[in-house]
Design brief:
Length: 614
Amino acid sequence: MTARTRSTTRSPAERLATGRPLLLSGVADGAEGLVLADLARSIAAGRAAPPVSLAVVCRDGQRLAALARALAFFAPDVEVLEFPAWDCLPYDRVSPHPGVVAQRMTALARLARVKGRERPAVALTTVNAILQRVPPREVIARQSLSAAPGNLLPMAGVTQWLELNGFNRAATVREPGDYAVRGGIVDLFAPGMAAPVRLDFFGDTLETIRSFDPETQRTTEELRALDLVPMAEFQLTTDTIRLFRTGYVAEFGAAGPDDMLYEAVSEGRRTAGMEHWLPLFHHRLETPFEFLTGTPLVLEPLAEEAAHERLAQIADYYQARKDALDQAGAGAPYKPLPPGRLYLNEGEWRDRLEQSALARLSPFTAPEGTTDAVEIGAHAGRNFVAERSELGSNVFEAVKKHAEGLQAARKRVVIALWSEGSRERMGHVLAEHGLLNLTPVASWPQALALSRPEIALAVLGVETGFETDDVALISEQDMLGERLVRPRRQSKRAENFIAEVTSLSAGDLVVHVDHGIGRFVGLRAIEAAGAPHDCLEIHYSGGDKLFLPVENIELLSRYGSEEATVDLDRLGSTAWQARKARMKNRIREMAGALIKIAAERQLREAPQLAVGSG
């Protein structure tokens, strides 16, 4: 992709400088990954390149995920570090998901330790994440644990480290954040790893480190070393508990007998939502900017507007908590910390931007008179909405003609589909309409390596395509329109509720469609909105409880197997969803095999037997 500058021939990477924001205009939706990959490579190839080539601030988590997918396709040679925000509201009573916290800590640990890189690296974050303060770099580096076979490492020290850093003890390790102890073996699933690992001790000596399959529990390969990062953004030690108690009393005064948070922390117990008092567990906090010293910053379109709205939201939620605290009978007290303790304010946010080498992405042409601007030259591709809405028109014929026109203009053509199945189906459909030379590719370099007559079919989740002077990308949504969602499942009739509840006995195992295997305890009346409400009480691993309204009993089914060796799932975990996904894939494979057998039977002709006369 070529870049045309307004006032100089220097590259965009060379023009990035503190105090002089650069505008990258003409970056169409869908082309951000390609532009950022080229920019990261240019920065990494320059003199005195920073350890992290580029930091990109996305406006929300969905954009972060989409950009991570795009970079994986456009630049497989670029390392991507994802730093997401908490998946809960400011001043919430619930904690962020353990998987999100693990991903955050993994990114911070890598950023804290990095000194230099052999290849370009891009850090992806969101407005919500970069506006929130984080533990200091020295704390994260100190809390990490490294191990290798042959090291003298007491097993008790490892299990203590796991407990202090937010790992959960389980009977069987199945998801990130779990650990289990059996004799001289410690199983753990560290954040950021593709599979759990098994540490085999002989006394205080670590003999082997092996990865294993969480479903079969069988080891797969031996590892040479293991680096562990905390699963939480604070530890519950004697020092941190004392620090919390001192800071809490200084901020809010003496704690009352109904202050559950103060009581839980004083007893060394983790409780839901305690992460929102993170500043009280540390002497000081830093911002993500300190982890990205010297790294150029890129803002997505609407990122600054999203930051302004986020800061206003934080102030509103804080004021709502303050008002509720002053009201009598408002339930368990929630004593919110001032926003500045955990979040940046508007002035700090602006100062950080001014102190960084900053670039802004824009899909539009730069206004006249803009000096620090680079025209990228990527504009939105063709959308076939007219052909989709016109009776008698064939959208695939229009796609064929458009692709042939692009090739005639000496442009390389890439068609992006959402999934492998979509690519296979679209390949057959386009071939039936005369668009030949379709070649599946796994990455952008593979697409560029094709000969000009060939058209690349890629699996890339972009909503809209784009065109430049040299290439054109057509997305599935350009051709077929917005993706449809499946309708909701039909609910069961109301008259069946009581009959089904009474068919359950205390202690029965049940399966919730979203949360997995739990144990039914009984019916319980819960007061909601000032009125009693009948709910099913279901217990999960780790003491988690779910209260399911009786009108939602269609979400439950009986567990249809022997109960002797059943492990309960944990609320909020991903293990159940992963098992469901694997089972669906297995069923799909079985269905495909059955269809193939049926088709072979249909095509095979049996010999005809002539019946003799008489």
